[in-house]
Design goal:
Protein name: N-acetylmuramoyl-L-alanine amidase
GO molecular function: N-acetylmuramoyl-L-alanine amidase activity
InterPro entries: Amidase/PGRP_sf, Amidase_domain
CATH superfamily of the largest domain: Peptidoglycan recognition protein-like
Organism: Streptomyces zhaozhouensis
CATH class of the largest domain: Alpha Beta
Radius of gyration: 20 Å
Pfam families: Amidase_2
Number of strands: 22
Number of domains: 2
Length: 360
């Protein structure tokens, strides 16, 4: 059970972690405490704003809009890494989410799939909105991601979270079914968690440095622009037609399936958007390792745990996070797969994957 930090303690914790802080208007007394609980708190949730521009984004998150009053978070993280504090107390950011996920956050263990919306997250999570369109094209600068890491670590350190594992920091996509944030070139919630865990092993004023190329992850982002209609009961190995890489930007691909080859540690966020689902229809996502012997075709060698969201009809955004070890040489490759269950084909109109890989 954790009592929320006071405004003074929050500012002090952020600054001690090296975060640039701007205190916006009357943020210290701006909250939704009159409509519901604030605390006990158990974790930090990361979002993207679906907006552009720091000033407009901060103003929106402070004021809210006609259907959702502000504050919409506790802090807005700009692309330059500055954290603008806009609320202290209950904020309209998390909404209702999966109680099993909350229990996993409390116990600091691996997160289960978010397939329910039965628990008030606004009472339990600090929330940071990060300025990004969330359209798979708007990149996340390194300074912004570093600020997410430091702000999250500051709160975890102040509460003593993270001693068992790094799952006190989650993405909105891991809390509420259908959410997709944060996403886009340059961000991965798995990477953020790993970096928070590393920061917590050091004093608050620690700055990472001196890493070798082998210790620095390579970040690539994959997208399937053209949709695909899936036949029920058959696993489909996704082919990708665009890839983003640091220093190179976007480039087209010839519908390649391979996400990664050779021996690596990896962290992967994989998401699909489906239209026209019937009530109770299930979509399954998984990541797999394929192996190929000389002169033979690729064959399944291993699958990581499957995410199985069930929808109540209409449109579904499904996303999940995996991390693991891809062994061997170029005879092994990492692929992403999707399957639908039911009695009719399902059109998939968006497929994305955000990959961080460390050579071993």
């Amino acid at each position: 059970m954790a009592t929320p930090l006071s405004a003074d303690r929050l500012v002090a914790a952020l600054k001690a972690e090296g975060v640039r802080v701007v205190e916006y208007r009357s943020w210290r007394t701006h909250n939704r405490n009159h409509v519901g609980a604030w605390g006990p708190v158990h974790g930090v949730m990361v979002h993207h704003t679906v907006t552009t521009g720091t000033d407009a984004s901060v103003r929106l998150c402070y004021d809210g809009h006609s259907t959702l009053p502000g504050p919409l978070c506790h802090g807005v993280i700009a692309k330059d890494g500055t954290v603008h504090l806009v609320g202290h107390g209950r904020a309209n950011h998390a909404g209702s989410g999966d109680g099993d996920v909350l229990q996993a956050v409390i116990e600091e263990r691996a997160l289960p799939p978010d397939n329910q919306a039965n628990t008030d997250g606004n009472a339990r999570f600090y929330g940071f909105e990060c300025v990004n369109l969330g359209d798979n094209k708007d990149p996340w600068p390194a300074a912004q991601v570093e600020a997410i890491v430091r702000a999250s670590a500051a709160i975890c350190r102040a509460h003593g979270w993270g001693k068992k594992g790094p799952t006190s920091v989650i993405g909105h996509l891991e809390w509420q079914p259908g959410k997709i944030d944060p996403r886009g070139p340059g961000v991965s919630i798995g990477d953020i968690r790993s970096r928070v865990a590393e920061r917590l092993r050091h004093p608050a004023d620690w700055s990472p440095g001196g890493s070798t190329p082998e210790e620095t992850p390579v970040h690539t982002y994959f997208e399937r622009k053209s949709g695909v209609t899936l036949t029920p009961g058959e696993w489909y190995t996704i082919t990708w037609d665009r890839v983003w890489a640091p220093g190179k930007g976007w480039s087209d691909r010839d519908l390649a399936q391979t996400l990664l080859k050779g021996e690596h540690l990896f962290s992967l966020d994989f998401a699909v958007r489906a239209e026209g689902l019937k009530r109770g229809q299930e979509i399954q996502l998984r990541v797999a390792r394929n192996h190929r012997k000389p002169g033979q075709e690729w064959a399944r060698a291993k699958s990581w745990p499957i995410s199985s969201p069930v929808h109540d009809g209409g449109r579904l955004h499904a996303a999940h996070h995996w991390q693991g070890h891809l062994p061997g040489s170029d005879d092994n490759r990492l692929v992403a797969e999707v399957l639908v269950n039911g009695d009719s084909p399902v059109p998939i109109d968006e497929l994305t994957a955000s990959l961080l890989a460390w050579p071993v």
